[in-house]
Amino acid sequence: RAVAGGTQDACPSTAAMSVKAFEIREKSKGELQKQLDELKTELGQLRVAKVTGGAASKLSKIKEVRKSIARVLTVMNQKQKETLRSFYIQEKKLLPLDLRAKKTRAIRRRLTKKEASAVTLKQKKKNSHFPLRKYAVKA
Fold it and tell me: What would the mean pLDDT of 60-65 be, rounded to a whole number?
């Protein structure tokens, strides 16, 4: 038990407490990758401690470290998507599917404003030759 406890106490201090998302967002990509590696090594050490019968405090810490890893990965993916959005913002016509607005399937299938307001030549002629009649109604 002393052998297992001796190696785990040298865990990085960044993962000792749960990682806050707003703090992670300020970090660069390299720092995030470094923090992710630290968290993953810590998780590995905690899993070894679990197998060897480590302290209860270490077993309860596994969940916290897993959540922290998820937060770091989420922020990394959000940043990556943000940079891709800024790259594709110039090309308004073709946008990758995952960067397009989600909305609902029905809304995505709906006619565009231009398509919905389009009028055939025959209908244009009808509208111009037979406009809506205006009535003067007495009160």
Answer: 93
